[in-house]
Amino acid sequence: MADVKKAVAKKPAVKANLVKSIEDLQKELVAQQQDLLDAKRSHQAGELVNPRVLGATRKQIARTLTAIRAAVANEQKESK
Question: Which residue, 68, 55, 75, 53, is CA-closest to 16?
């Protein structure tokens, strides 16, 4: 039998179509941190159905922090 490889569609890179302000990103970060805290509590209590939510939330927090740092750097660059 010939080996048949299935075509696997790659996930498109997540890119923001609109630019968010630093304040909006910081509000989003606080909400994500609260979600992570709630998920950790649920996981500790054994109520969390999908523990992969923890890792996904941490990664989303890292993405938001990166966006904040990039926006601050861009703002400082423009002010010079």
Answer: 68
Q: Reduce the DSSP state of residue 3 to 3 states and report it.
A: coil
What is d(CA 13, CA 15) in angstroms, rounded to the nearest whole number? 6
Burial code (b: 16+ CB inside 10 Å, e: under 16) for 4-19 equals: eeeeeeeeeeeeeeee
- pTM, two decimal places: 0.74
Check residue 24 and give its pLDDT. Answer: 94
Residue 60 counted as domain residue: yes
Residue 25 has a CB neighbour count (10 Å cut-off) of 21
**5 in any annotated domain:** no
Count of domains for the chain: 1
Record the tokens describing residue 23, joined without a space: 């304040």
